[in-house]
Amino acid sequence: MIKVKTGVAGLDKMLNGGLIAGRPYLVSGVPGAGKSIFGMQFLMQAVQEGKSGVYITMEERRRGLKQNFEVFGWDIDKVRVVEATPELGNNMWEIRAEASFINMTLNMNNLTDTIKQHLVSGVDRIVLDSITTLKMLYPSEVDARREILSMIHFLTDTGCTSLLLAEKWDDGRSMESFLAEGSIELRIIEEKGIKKRALEIKKMRGTDFDEQWRPMKITNRGIIVYADEALFKP
Ligand SMILES: Nc1ncnc2c1ncn2[C@@H]1O[C@H](COP(=O)(O)OP(=O)(O)O)[C@@H](O)[C@H]1O
Ligand SMILES: [Mg+2]
């Protein structure tokens, strides 16, 4: 069993070495929890190891991402960024990767097919930001579920280690967490008026892991998890 390093300091210790390679994982949290940072940090780790990554962004444009991640000293030009963002109002999605881009009508099959075309062979890691946006394309929960399941199967077939980023609005109801091989949640909690960040590994098939909530911070070097510290002092 091969494990890959996440690039998030402290987390690999919680995972007993890292994520089992070649599987899809869910990373969830409220807006601002740090999901996109987590995703890019995961790809930057791949770059450091001489491997390749694809970041599919359905929310923010490449330019915005580049600016956001510059503070961490990350050069996102080292990963392939695929933009798949809705053009609000005209029912079109635009997909761009490097020089090429296509305008297309809102249609789920096009979208996943086009995303798939950009996942050229030789890619080691994929981040999809986010499946929440993907889900919004479907009129019904049943359709959304079927498509997400198909996306998870597709990602598994690629042999890549992949992260599905998801907005978390509710507790426990998310079906993605059942489908993925593992699930990590990033949280912002408030205690006596002070906000704290925390990370929990909710599920991880095939390996032992630290089940406790651990404190985390977002610093100018990215996300750090304090694997040896308790979130709440006894
Ligand atoms: N350099 C930084 N130092 C500390 N915190 C930061 C820094 N850059 C961003 N953040 C925090 O990260 C949050 C955004 O993280 P992001 O990954 O975009 O969240 P999400 O994708 O979950 O919505 C911001 O709200 C901010 O609190
Ligand atoms: Mg985000």
Task: Give a description of the structure.
The chain has 234 residues and is of the alpha/beta class. The protein has one domain: Rossmann fold, CATH 3.40.50.300. The chain is 28% helix and 33% strand. The chain has helices spanning 11-14, 35-48, 62-70, 108-118, 131-135, 141-158, 176-179; strands spanning 3-4, 19-20, 24-29, 53-57, 80-87, 92-97, 100-105, 125-129, 161-167, 182-191, 194-204, 214-219, 222-225. The strands form two sheets. It has an eleven-stranded mixed sheet with strand order 7-6-5-4-8-9-3-10-11-12-13, sandwiched between helices. Strands 1-2 form a two-stranded antiparallel ribbon. The chain is globular. The termini are far apart. The mean pLDDT is 86. The structure holds adenosine-5'-diphosphate (ADP) and magnesium ion.
What is the correct CATH architecture? 3-Layer(aba) Sandwich
How would you state the average pLDDT, rounded?
A: 86
- Sheet with the most strands? 11 strands, mixed
The CATH class is Alpha Beta
Domains (count)? 1
| Helical fraction | 25-40%
Provide the list of bound ligands, each named once: adenosine-5'-diphosphate, magnesium ion
Total helical segments: 7
Computed over alpha carbons, the radius of gyration is 17 Å
Structural class of the helix and strand makeup? alpha/beta
Query: Count of DSSP E strands?
Result: 13
* Annotated CATH homologous superfamily: P-loop containing nucleotide triphosphate hydrolases
